[in-house]
Amino acid sequence: MKYAKVNGKKVEAKPKLRGICTNCSQEMVAKCGRVKIWHWAHKSRLHCDPWWESETEWHRNWKNNFPVEWQEISHKDKASNERHIADVKTSHGLVLEFQHSLISPAEVESREQFYGNLIWIVDGNRSELDKGHFNLGLSGPIQKDPLAYQISWYGRSRLLQNWAESKVMVYLDFGDEILWRLVLYNSQKKTGAVGPLSKKAFIEDCLNGYPIRVSKLEE
Length: 219
Description:
It contains 4 helices and 14 strands. By secondary structure, it is α+β, with helices and mostly antiparallel strands. It has 2 domains: 1-48, no CATH class; 50-208. The strands form 3 sheets. It has a 9-stranded mixed beta sheet. A 3-stranded antiparallel beta sheet has the order 3-4-5, with no helix packed on it. The longest helix has 11 residues, at 105-115. This is Competence protein CoiA-like N-terminal domain-containing protein. Residues 20-49 form the Competence protein CoiA-like N-terminal domain. It holds the Pfam family CoiA_N.
């Protein structure tokens, strides 16, 4: 985790610090080694949120686009008392989950039901070949307003297939200034449609609480 509470305030990990988990209130220790990104870990070594994944610089870079008070927010279901930590939850009620590791369709569905107003941002560079396969498969555009391109998938990975059944917006981040929304994908035909949007525009809309805009092809 990026943050723990120290003397009642959200603080990033620093050597020798001790803190309290913002989700379960258990003791946290700062992990500040030379290899992994500095982070907080539960002293018991058992994370209170089974949905949590080890953070990368990619996670941190995304979180840093948003105010500290929006990052790592404990979200509780009032009916079940189930509790999870949202990567970012804006003051407008939108949850952003930054997903690097593989995730099962069942967990995708569970998170979407739990958070409701959710958008996924998926790390497209987890596999070193996925970006190349994505660019190779792009053709079009097939629609001008909103702008959409056909995508054919030639790679072995299941990057698009894993997110084909999502009920919320899914954006693929290949490390460029453009995000690609996965509009639809047919797993049998291995074809679908994606729409581009500048990362800057996406972040601005999230910060301001606006509906996420779409790109158009000017005549």
